[in-house]
Amino acid sequence: MSEYDFRAIEAKWQKIWEDEKAFEVDNRPDPSRPDFYCLEMLPYPSGRLHMGHVRNYTIGDALARFKTARGFKVLHPMGWDSFGLPAENAAIKRKIHPRIWTEDNISQMRQQLRRMGYSYDWRREIAAHRPEYYRWNQWFFLKLLERGLAYRANRWVNWCNTCQTVLANEQVEGGVCWRCESPVVRKALEQWFFRITDYAEELDAFLPKLTGWSDRVRQMQKNWIGRSEGALVRFSVERSAAEPLEIFTTRLDTIYGATFCVLAPEHPAVAALTAGSPEAARVTEFVRRMTERNVSTLDFETEEKEGVFTGRHALNPYTGERIPIWVGNFVLMEYGTGAIMAVPGNDARDHEFALKYGLPIRPVVRPEDASAPPAADGPFVEPGILIDSGPYTGMTSGSAFEAMLLSGEEKGFARRTVHYRIRDWGISRQRYWGTPIPVIHCARCGAVPVPEKDLPVILPDDVEFTGEGGSPLARSASFTKADCPRCGNPARRETDTMDTFVDSSWYFYRYTDPQNERAPFDAAAARAWFPIDQYTGGITHAILHLIYCRFFTKVMRDMGLVDLDEPVVRLLNQGMVLKGGSAMSKSKGNVVEPDSMVERYGADTCRLFILFASPPERDLEWNDQGVEGCHRFLERVWRLAASAFAPSPAPAPPAAGSERQTALRRKTHQTILRVTEDLDRRLHFNTAIAAIMELVNETSLFVQAGVTSEAERACAREALTAIVRLLSPFAPHFSEEVWERLDGKGRLLSLAWPEADPALAAAPQVEVVVQINGKLRGKVTVGRGASEGEVLERARGDARLEAHLQGKTLAKTIFVPDRLLNLVVRG
């Protein structure tokens, strides 16, 4: 064998795989091979792969190759999340159309993915910006509209007057627009929404069933959905014909301590409550100031509490007490009803506000342990025993809640309810580079859906990108001018486009039937592959993307398109790739380009390092020396394959050989078992690779000691072929080349995964002497190399030995592997 020329080898096998269509699969059932859907989250085509991409896709590819070798029919597709603001920004900056920029980037990134040797079925490639894909976004919109799950409503949004566009919270930096640095204000704007709250109960209830998802992700989703059981209480407004204020509370037990009410600045009752009153000007100014400030979750948590009295009072329906109504910046219209009862004696936030404005503070709950010292730095906020609460005094919080609720329900001013933190999904974006919303606005007929036969509504190319004046679509006469589908009169096309999360909420179904022109996908094709057996992607998508795609699946189920409740069986959120302790970033100057690594060491070395350096769920610290080490390892295996015993076939290893031969065979079969277990159940690629490295060490020592007989050559050959076959998911080009040079039969890609012989893998049995306080008390039989814990467990399971340990405390153990366990006990 010549030197390891990774450039030539990788180019050779990539061409072979492409020519042989090695990764293409069809949708026809194959009784001899179970289906396995292996998927990584699709990338945004930014123009270059980064190491985060490489880690994600290498994890998925290693698993796809392993499952193929294990006899599965594997679907492993790739596509592009290609709509979004970055392309529009590039158009403004580079004076190039987003479509051209995006297609160029896709071409470049596709080539990079091919160079890494990933086993994608490229016939199934999809891209969100192409009409053949986004027409089905529009089709889904129409179907949701028919079912009452899509609607238009006014909502408060972050608004940049210069860019004339809505901004997400993360696009507001220090109160100004991230792009133009103009002040951002709050503005009520008519937007399109998907009614995800209709599925909030099911989204929450199904979380425990997602046993293949991490506890962390499930908890993040649970918190985002935010299910709260509580009560809706009606507070009438004193001397007013206005509707009572509805207040949601999870702590009805504290209502006797309510000393004021607070409304969100955007609450619709604020204007009516203050109309014509002396407080109107002050309240109006406060609301204006609040709506013009920077709004993000972080600000609400940290900014100083502010408020203004409306001049009006509400009546506590339980006590009849007259309490003032305030407007406050710490109450969100998005939570509950946008109105709260404030209990400063038992709520930290209300306590802070009451102290600032001199409002009454009346504790009504104390700790159950009456001897417990009072809180030194604020109110008691936990459930406890009620005090000063009329007939409910002395009850526990739980009992009082139920009793109060029953009374309120009987009298008609309270009812049990469940609140969800999750809000309906706002899909409107004032952008060009997104799916056009298929609606036409008619002065006579209102908002009219575009007929299905007229889909797709195509993005026009005659647009200008200035970054100012709102969406370029709104300035395109060829796009905006349309006839009303109902009355035929001149009308105006909707110029908002869809949130790009719509694109990624169902894309994995399209992979099963990507050329379908009659439907988003064929139900039978989806049924053949779903649910997704393994989904891999970053933790940053744990909430929005994964909640939205779960929502889409449930909607499609109710439409009869699919027959499952959840789209993903097992989810892996891989860690980040760091350098110098920080995530790779161009601004930090710590980016490692995949192309340079592939050029210097080869794709297989990069793949091997990124899988070996860390367990997949943990962050990975980039280490140039580690990359070099993985390259040296491959070169070492290459040289081992060139050893004298390797070039020609060898006879089968002897059933009973020398101790040296038996030891190598045992290590070989133990390694097969370990690697199979690590890939099949735990997805611990790093420990699998470590096991292969151990086998390489053992095999090298065996060869160095001399291979002088056919039996020895057969044992070495068995070990080497196992090494090459076990390496194939991690370093596929390298493994195929070595296998071919070893005169192996067939392609490794289509060769069945090696099977271990359990009898050969089993360690020989040894007797370990067990002493108790230095005295021989018995012996236990264990496998050679058993750990101290394993021997101790076996000793405790021996009735004769356990009799000497009863009533005694184990103080110390002295362990000599394969020989002695001395237990030092007291008592």
Commentary on this structure:
- The protein is globular, with a radius of gyration of 34 Å.
- It has 26 helices and 34 strands.
- Helix content is 37%, strand content 19%.
- Strands 10, 11, 12, 13, 14, 15 and 18 form a seven-stranded mixed beta sheet that branches.
- With 827 residues, it is an alpha+beta fold.
- The N and C termini lie far apart (68 Å).
- The model has no long low-confidence stretch (mean pLDDT 91).
- Helix 20 packs antiparallel against helix 21.
| Rg over alpha carbons | 34 Å
Would you tell me the overall average pLDDT? 91
- What is the CA-CA span between the terminal residues? 68 Å
Main beta-sheet strand count, sense and barrel state: 7 strands, mixed
Number of strands: 34
Indicate the low-confidence ranges by residue numbers.
Answer: none
Question: What is the percent of helical residues?
Answer: 25-40%
How much of the sequence is in beta strands? 15-25%
Number of helices: 26
Structural class: alpha+beta
> Which shape, going by the Cα principal axes?
globular
